Structures are given as C-alpha cells and as structure tokens.
C-alpha cells in the first residue's frame, strides 16, 4: 500500500508551498503487489547483488507497466522526445571490433591514456575501479571484466534547476546521451588498442548498477538523496561506465566530506514532495547507506517528468559552491582529528 504523498504547487523555487498530491488512478491501477523497496533489498542485512527494479525491459520487472505508463503519459513532450531521439542515434552507432592487442604500455600509462581520452571524447571527469561482480544485477550475466572506467558529464544547472518540467527532463536525457557518446567512443578506442570493452549508460539500465562503480573509481560519495555528490559538480551530473580487461591501475575512492555534510543537511529531505528521503541511513543489501523510498518516490517521479528536485536543490550542485564546501569539510575533519 502506498503511503500518502505530498507535492508542491509550482516550480522548484516554490518548494515550501505544498498541497496534497493524489497519484493518478490510472498509474496506481498498474502498481504491483510487491514493494519496490523489497526488490531493492531495504532492511536486508545480508550482502547480495542488486535486483532489477526500474529502467529495464518492462516485461521483465514487476514495475514494468508503470515504466510504460510514464513513457506514454509524461515523457512525450517535444523537448523530451527530441532529446531521446538524439540519445538513440548515439546508441544506434555500431561499435568497432577488437583489434590485435597492443602490449607496449604499462598499466599506469594505459590508465593515463584512458582518462585523457575520456575527457577528449566529452567526459567532464573519469576514474578507474577494479571490477566487483556484485555490481552486476541478479539475473544478468557478464563476461569476466577486470576494470570499470567511470565517467561523469555535468548538467547545465540553469536547465536542471527548473525541475520538475520539460526543460529539466530534456537536460537529463541530453546528458545521458552525452555520457553514452563518451563511453561508446572510449569503448571503441580501447577495442582499437586490442582489448575487449563494453559500454554501460543510462537512463535505461544495462547489466550493472553504476553508482557503486563510480564511487569506487573516485568520482564522489553517495548523498542523502541517493545520488552521488562529486567534489566539483555536486549532484549536477550523470554517469557512464566502460567495462574492460585493459590492464589498468585502479583509483582510490574520493572521500571529501559529502557523506558527513549530508548527515547534518536536510535540504533534499525537506524539498522532496513525496517525503521519500529519510533522515537516517538504511540497511540495504548488507550495507548501511542513504536510501530513497522507492514506493514514495516513483508515483511522483512518474507524474512530474522525472522530478530531479533533490539533485537540483542539493547545496553542492550550485555552481561555484562545491569548492568552498570541500574546504569547509576538510577544516571540520582536521578539527576533529586535532
């Protein structure tokens, strides 16, 4: 049973002006018996791989009819459709085969080259993580990959801060498309060096969950709103990943204080219309972490063109703010250590 939801009347700037929200009956008629939180593993203390819950083939997941309802009713504006067509054009471009392997570089040099090429191909940041099989969704199979190269592409904040609405929704899809273009170009380049590689991008989920890989690659920390926080872009970015057996050197996770900041910040919790962002961390598949209540979030998400309020209001996302917050959190950690 879905708990009562709340939303606000107006754009993001009117976040505190809230009125009762009743989900569209035609959407709720499609709601499955199983909770999305249960699929995600909320409350589970044992480790396990993630289960597909949304953005997979609709006929393979319980919430698939809701995904179809969203596409039919709220993802069909002119701006959004155009953005989706641009993204699909990137996906439709064929990838090259794998050439004869070059073995004339060290792992350290290959790492320098792939991060350099990622930026050349349009990424705004890139990092490398040693692959963890637990990042692969249950029911999905993958080759035995050694590394995950994660890339970040930042949004136009002026567009994102209009969330929820067509402009913000189109911007999100545009950046997913830009991320896919970068990861597919880097995949092609790696294959051209003679090493197997496979791209992963969004919003449609592939065979793996991207956020843990990106955190392992040093692109940021998990925020209270369930999205990542980057030390420069805040929450104002999207991810892509390349899986490869190219010999690389993994980067270290980047711990700069975002998690600590989120413990004391309530901006996204207070701004969330369906009250889907808890005040404390939750146990999810054996890890205590920030988690967004799927059953509260999804109906509002579906009826507001993909929402995105929480990442738009995040203090780290505002241009020019993140550097100061990083320094503030460094001073706080130093004071505690003294």
Structure report:
The protein has 338 residues and is of the alpha+beta class. The chain has one domain (50-337). Helix content is 38%, strand content 13%. The protein has helices at 25-28, 36-40, 64-73, 78-91, 107-120, 157-160, 166-192, 210-216, 258-264, 267-271, 294-303, 309-313, 322-337; strands at residues 5-8, 18-21, 125-130, 147-154, 197-200, 221-222, 228-229, 237-244, 282-284, 287-289. Helix 4 runs parallel beside helix 7 and helix 5 (107-120) packs antiparallel against helix 7. The chain is globular and about 65 Å long.
Structure in a nutshell:
This protein has one domain (50-337). α4 packs parallel to α7 and α5 runs antiparallel to α7.
Average pLDDT, to the nearest integer?
93
Helix content: 25-40%
How many individual β-strands?
Answer: 10
Question: Between the first and last Cα atoms, what is the distance in angstroms?
Answer: 49 Å
β-strand amount: 5-15%
Strand order in the largest sheet: 3-4-8-5
How much is the radius of gyration in Å?
Answer: 20 Å
Number of helices: 13
Total count of domains: 1
Oligomer: single chain
Helix and strand pattern: EEHHHHHEEHHEHEEEHHEEHHH
Q: What overall geometry do the principal axes of the alpha carbons give?
A: globular
The major beta sheet can be summarized as: 4 strands, antiparallel
Q: Which ranges are low-confidence, i.e. pLDDT below 50, for 5 or more consecutive residues?
A: 1-17
Q: Class by helix and strand content?
A: alpha+beta
């Amino acid at each position: 049973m879905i708990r009562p939801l709340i939303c606000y009347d107006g754009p993001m700037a009117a976040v505190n002006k809230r009125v009762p929200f009743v989900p569209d009956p035609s959407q709720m008629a499609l709601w499955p018996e199983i909770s999305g939180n249960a699929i995600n593993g909320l409350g589970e203390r044992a480790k396990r791989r993630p289960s597909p819950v949304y953005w997979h083939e609709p006929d393979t997941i319980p919430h698939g009819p809701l995904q179809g309802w969203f596409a039919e009713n709220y993802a069909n504006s002119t701006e959004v459709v155009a953005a989706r067509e641009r993204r699909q054009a990137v996906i439709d471009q064929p990838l090259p085969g794998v050439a004869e392997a070059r073995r004339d570089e060290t792992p350290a040099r290959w790492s320098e080259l792939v991060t350099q090429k990622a930026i050349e191909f349009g990424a705004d940041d890139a990092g490398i993580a040693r692959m963890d099989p637990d990042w692969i969704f249950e029911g999905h199979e993958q080759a035995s990959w050694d590394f995950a190269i994660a890339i970040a592409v930042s949004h136009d904040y002026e567009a994102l801060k209009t969330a929820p609405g067509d402009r913000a929704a189109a911007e999100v899809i545009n950046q997913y498309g830009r991320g896919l273009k970068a990861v597919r170009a880097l995949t092609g380049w790696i294959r051209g060096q003679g090493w197997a590689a496979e791209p992963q991008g969004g919003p449609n989920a592939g065979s793996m969950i991207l956020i843990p890989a990106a955190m392992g690659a040093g692109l940021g920390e998990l925020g209270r709103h369930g999205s990542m926080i980057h030390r420069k872009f805040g929450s104002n970015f999207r991810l892509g990943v390349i899986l490869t057996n190219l010999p690389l050197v993994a980067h270290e996770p980047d711990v700069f204080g975002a998690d600590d900041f989120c413990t004391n910040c309530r901006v996204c919790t207070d701004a969330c219309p369906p009250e889907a962002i808890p005040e404390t961390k939750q146990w999810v598949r054996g890890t205590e972490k920030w988690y967004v209540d799927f059953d509260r979030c999804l109906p509002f998400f579906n009826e507001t063109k993909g929402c995105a309020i929480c990442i738009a209001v995040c203090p780290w996302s505002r241009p020019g703010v993140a550097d100061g917050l990083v320094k503030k959190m460094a001073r706080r950690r130093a004071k505690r250590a003294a």
